[in-house]
Every structure is written in structure tokens, then in C-alpha cells.
């Protein structure tokens, strides 16, 4: 058996987009109650990888965190939400499916989540407190990421990345 061959950068680039997408308006990561700028940078990179958009509130520190986290140094698809609950209501009114990445009684397991067939928003909560109850009233469903360890949840960037890959149909 021969050793695996690492593909050269030129070969990898030939199968990818030539430039950043504008707005595909299909899958969004929405960390609407962010606490750590590093998580936003990681989610921004994942959004680029899967062709998703990032929706964030305009908090004073968020633009700098996104600029610092954009390691690709190319334009990315970022939507500024304004007030979080009003933005979620608008997304539902326009026909988007809104999913909370949260542990709820009715949560769908990540393994069972299907690729998005309509505009879909993956709502990510606060790193410590999760998705607020008033936001859960506005979602169409929730996604649970099963865990075997002692922690109750994953880092927001890790959880969001897993869900985005599933919604994009890449896992």
C-alpha cells in the first residue's frame, strides 16, 4: 500500500471559489450573544469554508474582533443584526428556518440534522448562559450536540462549526 499523497495548494485552489462569495442567503451562523472575540473569528473562518454568512450584533468590540479573526484577509459575508430578537423575527417573517443550537427537550441530534433546503439560521447562545428563553420562543427547532464527557456544552465556535458543516451538507 502506498502512502497518502498531500495535494498541492494549486490543485486545492482549482476546485474552490475564485473569490469570496457575496451573500448566498442560505445558511447563517448567528452568535447573537457573543462573549469572546476569538469565537467570532473562528466562526467567520468556518462560514467561509462552508459558504455561509455570519450574523452578529453591532456591539462596540465586535468589528475589531472580526477584523482580527479574519485570517483569510479577504472580504467575508457579515450581516449586522441590530437588536437580536427583532432580527430573529424578521428572519422568520421572510421564511427562514431558525434553529437554536441548544439543549432542549425537543432537540434534534446533530447526526440527524439534514442539509438546509431553505434559508436557515443557526442561533448560537451566550457561552455561559446559552440561548435566552425569549429567543427560544422564536425558533422552529433546536439541535443538540451529544457529549460523553463531563462538560455540559462545547465552545460556541466549535458547536457552531459542527452545525454549519451539517447544514451545508458537507458532513
CATH class label: Alpha Beta
* Count of the separate structural domains: 1
Residue fraction in strands: 15-25%
Q: Oligomer, anyone?
A: single chain
CATH superfamily: SPOUT methyltransferase, trefoil knot domain
Write a structural description:
Pfam families: SpoU_methylase. This is tRNA (Guanosine-2'-O-)-methyltransferase. The protein is an alpha/beta fold and 171 residues long. The chain has one domain (36-167): SPOUT methyltransferase, trefoil knot domain (Alpha/beta knot), CATH 3.40.1280. 32% of the residues lie in helices and 16% in strands. The chain is built from 6 helices and 7 strands, in the order αβαβαβαβββαβα. Strand 1 (27-31), helix 2 (37-50) and strand 2 (53-56) form a beta-alpha-beta unit. The protein is globular and about 55 Å long. 31% of the residues are buried.
Strand and helix map with partners:
Blueprint: H1 9-14, E1 27-31, H2 37-50, E2 53-56, H3 62-69, E3 78-80, H4 84-93, E4 97-101, E5 108-109, E6 120-124, H5 133-136, E7 141-144, H6 156-167
Parallel strand pairs: 1-2, 1-6, 2-3, 4-6, 4-7, 5-7
Helix pairs in contact: 2-3, 2-6
Summarize the structure in short.
The chain is an alpha/beta fold and 171 residues long. It has a single domain, classed as 3-Layer(aba) Sandwich (Alpha/beta knot), CATH 3.40.1280. The protein has 6 helices and 7 strands; from the N terminus they run H-E-H-E-H-E-H-E-E-E-H-E-H.
Comma- or semicolon-separated keywords:
171 residues, alpha/beta, Alpha/beta knot, 32% helix, globular, RNA binding, EC 2.1.1.34, rRNA_Methyltransferase, tRNA_m1G_MTases_N, methyltransferase
Amino acid at each position: 500500500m502506498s502512502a497518502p499523497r498531500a495535494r498541492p495548494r494549486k490543485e486545492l485552489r482549482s476546485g474552490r471559489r475564485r473569490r469570496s462569495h457575496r451573500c448566498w442567503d442560505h445558511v447563517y451562523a448567528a452568535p447573537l450573544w457573543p462573549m469572546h472575540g476569538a469565537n467570532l473569528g473562528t466562526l467567520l473562518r468556518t462560514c467561509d469554508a462552508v459558504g455561509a454568512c455570519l450574523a452578529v450584533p453591532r456591539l462596540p468590540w465586535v468589528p475589531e474582533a472580526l477584523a482580527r479573526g479574519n485570517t483569510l484577509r479577504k472580504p467575508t459575508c457579515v450581516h449586522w443584526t441590530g437588536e437580536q430578537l427583532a432580527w430573529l423575527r424578521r428572519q422568520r417573517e421572510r421564511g427562514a428556518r431558525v434553529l437554536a443550537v441548544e439543549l432542549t427537550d425537543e432537540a434534534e441530534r446533530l447526526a440527524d440534522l439534514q442539509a438546509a433546503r431553505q434559508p436557515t439560521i443557526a442561533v448560537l447562545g451566550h457561552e455561559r448562559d446559552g440561548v435566552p428563553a425569549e429567543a427560544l420562543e422564536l425558533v422552529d427547532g433546536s439541535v443538540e450536540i451529544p457529549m460523553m464527557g463531563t462538560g455540559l456544552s462545547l465552545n460556541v465556535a466549535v458547536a457552531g462549526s459542527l452545525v454549519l458543516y451539517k447544514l451545508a451538507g458537507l458532513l
